[in-house]
Amino acid sequence: MSNTDFDVIICGAGPVGLSVAALLHKRGMAAARIALIDAKTVAQAAQDPRSIALSSGSRQTLEDIGAWPAMSAAASAIHHIHVSRRGHFGRTLIQREDYDLPALGYVCRYGSLATALSAVIDATPIVTIRPAQVDVIEQSEQAAMVRLADGRMLSAGIIVQAEGGVFSEQTAKSVQRDYDQVAIVAHVKASAAIAHRAFERFTSEGPLALLPYDDGYSLVWCVRPATAQQLLALDDTGFLQALQTAFGTRLGRFTTLTPRNSYPLGLNAEPASSPRIVAIGNAAQTLHPVAGQGLNLGLRDATVLASLLTQASHSDTLATFARARRADRSATIRLTDVMARVFASAPDGAPSQALLGLSLGLVDVLTPARRVLAEQMMFGRR
């Protein structure tokens, strides 16, 4: 594509966009033919306090890129994942020992991951344009064009949309489902913390995740909007008491709490496709946070796309990419969507909730079923 400014323009320098750029360069694409555009500076991205879960498969991708050495000191390892239903029969325990892995996954700050990946990009001649706002993306038979807010026009053979985020009004036009749920996120400490153990606990309104991080837990608590308003209105003592009631006493007493934030939840799983424009990560699919699969699915998108584009960077490549990613995307979306819908739409005690609880018990008893669930969460459908 020598008649264009670049072979590939990546819009969005979050972890997924940064990973695509780094993987393209590692696999042989000339750095001068890769452009990375983002509205935020590196310093702004580094301040993002959100906690994210990285699967074992995502660690392999970051090691391939060269970002893992910087991440290893900033991430907390998950050795066991305890999945249960509060106050009811049914649970499963996924353990690293069963898969001969150093960890099932890791928890880190979004800002730390973005910083590590940005350092990898900064060590290459990849063209970075930030802060810069993308105004319009257009395409023709010959090329795709990006117009920036300052009037600059850039052309490429392929444009990758990797600018994602939480479910919001901006994604509403392509949303398949609104879960009528809100995620409350914070960092909490407990008096009897269990080292390296993550919890995914299903309550009557949705999943409650506690991910080991630093000297406490990253909390993601999914509830219906009215409940979210009530919980956010409580003082710290009242909120911790409500959390104790919802989770139980497996970790002793919850003792401290950071400021809380909340996000509406939904499913955006209908990415637009065209011969020269491809969406990956949250730009392609914004998932419910149950099982923490969103970023990991996006990094698998990045790995496959980079491999294909360095073999053949033309419009047919994107059709091949869509076919290659269909099974993994579909399986991951079904896994998160079914779990989310059971608790977002069914009243407490509904048969569908009881069936999910029974399923958790069966997964724990049946080793092959537990392995299938664990491998989907760690590595995706391969």
Name the CATH homologous superfamily of one domain: FAD/NAD(P)-binding domain
Indicate the low-confidence ranges by residue numbers.
166-175, 350-355, 357-366
Q: Given the helix and strand composition, which structural class is it?
A: alpha/beta
**What name does CATH use for the topology of one domain?**
FAD/NAD(P)-binding domain
| Fraction of residues in H or I helices | 25-40%
> What sort of overall outline do the alpha carbons produce when their principal axes are compared?
elongated
Radius of gyration: 21 Å
Query: Separation of termini?
Result: 31 Å
Number of strands: 18
Q: Count of helical segments?
A: 11
Identify the CATH class of one domain: Alpha Beta
Which band does the percent of strand residues land in?
25-35%
